[in-house]
Design a protein that fits this description.
heterodimer, A: 6-stranded mixed β-sheet, 9 strands, 0% helix, globular, B: mainly beta
Amino acid sequence: QSALTQPRSVSGSPGQSVTISCTGTSSDIGGYNYVSWYQQHPGKAPTLIISHVTQRPSGVPDRFSGSKSGNTASLTISGLQAEDEADYYCCSYAGRANYLFGAGTEVTVL
Amino acid sequence: QVQVVESGGGVVQPGRSLRLSCAASGYTFSSRAIHWVRQAPGKGLEWVAVVSPDGTDKYYADSVKGRFTISRDNSKNTVSLQLNSLRAEDTAVYYCGRDGEGGYHFDYCGQGTLVTVSS
């Protein structure tokens, strides 16, 4: 199984919205509503920002939202802030107790 | 609050073994599965293994199957990852993560422990 496909980088100015796509197949993203997203600042551990495609854990700002259409999941950051500059990883359950991550997307706040 | 702490990393020669530990607290340890996820230097995240809440079910990524073994001791609130037949490509920071509400993701993880496989 191949890793999920994410853009290498996206950028936006403060206050703008950016969307990160995560493309898989019908065997992973398309087959289950088990997509999660993680934020990772340099030198830090990853932190959960979205689970089950759209669910935002308590404490995560509501400017982060998730969605899915077919084999592609998306993470949108609305009202971009400086502290959102980080790497973002999508992850999907892929059946038979297996999980796939994307290669990560670097978000730059201009 | 939930806390997760990994330990046991270090420098090891190819072909040798290492045992990583994960200690979790702040919740009912035996109620949640535990995942291991790793990150090679400068690379992305890779799921490695998961153990069920009672320790009976264990699953592995193809890249480590047959070489790594996950286990847990609910009396000590710890999970172990035994790494055998180590290869250079196993060099990574290893994170332990608690399975989140509803499963299929991890919601808390520690700061990780670095494993370096080098001669």
